[in-house]
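Revision sheet: structure tokens.
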Amino acid sequence: MRKTIFKWLILILLAVYACGMTIWAYNESRKNSCQGIEISITKGTSADTVTQRGVMEELSHYPRKLVGQPLEAIDTRHLETYLSRFSNFEDVECTVTTGGKLSINIQPMVPAIRVFDGDKSYYINKEGKVIESKPNFFVDVPVVVGNFSSSFTPMQVLPLVRFIERDKVMSKLVGMIEAKDPDNLILVPRIHGHVINFGDTNLLDYKRKALLTVYRKVMPYKGWNVYDTISVKFKGQVVATRRDKTRADFGMVKDDSPDMEEATLPVIAPGSLE
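Predicted:
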């Protein structure tokens, strides 16, 4: 009887030991394997969440499994090279934390404009560096459409883009820029059926005042659909091309009051220029 009890006692102790060792081994393996991925963004912007989702999507195509793998088996240098191949990132740093997680710090390129150049689409930053346009790294920035070349680049449109962004009225008015050539930058308003030829990037303040003078003094009387193009590219005059080509080809409006206050402008759409 004692021998039987002793045998059962030994079996129970062995079973407890086996369970204990299993739990210990599992915990040790967890301590030394990747428990997850943390992504942080340097120079945070409103697009951080989009960037984080984009990084996770790209990691899903990484040729090596990351989560659950031994930490010593994760090649952080290879991972940095893999992510750095995207022009969307200026810098990528990968490290392993003491908590057993893979930490990825991303410094993204900051796009200034999105360019639609023929059948190509891409972003450029303020230095003119091209950034690949990828759906999982979409950024809402001003849009410029044109056929660019080595002699006429999107960088030449940037002064106008920045001018519009800084101006409360113009930023609400303009939806897109069509760059025909350096001397014919066309603003496409968000509303109404006309476009605005701003010419080149010189005398932008003067051209703005001329345009807003037309909006205040002419359009309420002539009607918003009379003209298809308003040109402020020529100093001292505004050329408005009629939509109805069977009538006179253009009308001339002298800018005799270029210093109008924004508050005196007509209402283009409820709340749009207030």
